[in-house]
Each structure stands twice: as C-alpha cells, then as structure tokens.
Amino acid sequence: MQLIENEEARRLLNLGEAAIIDVRERAEFRKMNFDGSINFLSSSFEIQNYFPFQRYKIYLRCQLGNRSRKVAENLENEGFSQVFLLENQMDRISVEKYRQKGWSIDRQFRITLGILLLIFLLGYKVHSSSWIITPVILCTGLIFTSIIDRCDMRMGIALLPWNRGKKG
Fold first, then answer.
1. pLDDT at 168 over 50
2. Angle at 141 between CA 40 and CA 43, to 5 degrees
3. Domain boundary among 56, 79, 97
4. Are residues 147 and 64 both part of a single domain?
5. What is the pTM of this model?
6. Are residues 13 and 65 in the same domain?
7. What is the pLDDT of residue 99?
8. Are residues 109 and 81 in the same domain?
9. How far apart are CA 127 and CA 136, in angstroms?
10. pLDDT-derived band of residue 108, with 50, 70 and 90 as boundaries?
11. Rounded to an integer, what distance in angstroms lies between the CA atom of residue 92 and that of residue 15?
C-alpha cells in the first residue's frame, strides 16, 4: 500500500475525488480531527461502511499508522484498489501542532506511568511486599493494550481539562 502526502489527500478531498477515513476510536476522533474526515472504528471494522466510497481514493489515518495499515489490508483483501495511508498520522501531526502548547498526551501518559511505578516500588521497598502487585498489574495492562492497540488510560488523559483545548 502506498503512502500519500497529507496535503495531496486534502486537495483530492476538496475536489471530491477522495475520502479521508480516520479509524481511531471515537474519543480520539472527537479530541482531534480534520474537516471532511470520516470516522469508522478499526476495532469494529465492517466492510459495508466502505462500500459508498469504493469509487473514491480512500486515505486512511489513525494515531500511529498500525490500525490504518490493518484496515487497508482488509480493504485490499475485499477488492478495494485505491486505498492509501496518509504519510503523517495523527501522532506526528499532534506533536508538530502542539509542541509549544505544553506536553503531548503521550508524554503525559508516560510520566503518569513512571510516577505510578515509582510510588508503588517505593511502597514495596519501604512498607510491604504486597505493593508489588500494582506494578505487575500496570505491566500486564501495558502488554494487553499494546496487543489490542487501544489504551483507555491514554484516552482518559486526553479528556483532562488542560487537554480539552487541543483541537485539530
């Protein structure tokens, strides 16, 4: 599958020759999206959603590119021939757009995990061995969210008051 520059996709969208489909979860899409993009969840992929756009060039977008790549493979397996990935997925756009407006959601997520692990490891060292269960739960959660490619904690951080003004 080919990559296409975001500006070229936007130009073709404005000409009525393309559809930009965002396959992130609804909360992620509501937080930041672009005019004219459509939201079909990759987690509940249904081929019939894409049939109205079969005659268009379909440009897929998600946070990192993993979900849009899976959807592109599914569409190509179903006979769609004009499926492309946008060159810059949302993580790159949000980093560039909000670099000077505070910490990115991912950076807030990582520091939250780091602080939680530090607190619980100190609790384990100072108080009792039962504190070790929390880092085990966090570790298991990180592995699971990596497998399903969705993180509710990250989406929750995106809904915090200081992140609400960050729109695309």
1. no
2. 15
3. 97
4. no
5. 0.56
6. yes
7. 44
8. no
9. 17
10. confident
11. 25
Alpha helices by DSSP H, listed for the chain, are 6-14, 26-31, 66-77, 90-98, 105-126, 133-148, 152-158
- Return the exposure string of 148-160: e unless at least 16 CB atoms fall within 10 Å of the residue's CB, then b: eebbeebbebbee
What is the Cα–Cα distance from 6 to 61, expressed in whole angstroms? 10
Owner of token pair 């509501």: 30
CB atoms within 10 A of CB 42: 21
Q: Is residue 167 part of a domain?
A: no
Instruction: Quickly state the pLDDT bin for 36 (edges 50, 70, 90).
Output: confident
* 61 strand-pairing partners: 22
CA 89 – CA 20 distance, rounded (Å):
12
Has residue 111 been placed in a domain? yes
Average pLDDT over residues 113-137: 82
d(CA 99, CA 89): 16
Closest CA to 20 of 68, 53, 74, 60: 60
Q: Where a domain ends, among 55, 77, 97?
A: 97
- Which residues constitute the domain of residue 158? 102-162
Q: 9 with 64, same domain? A: yes
Whether 168 is covered by a domain: the verdict is no
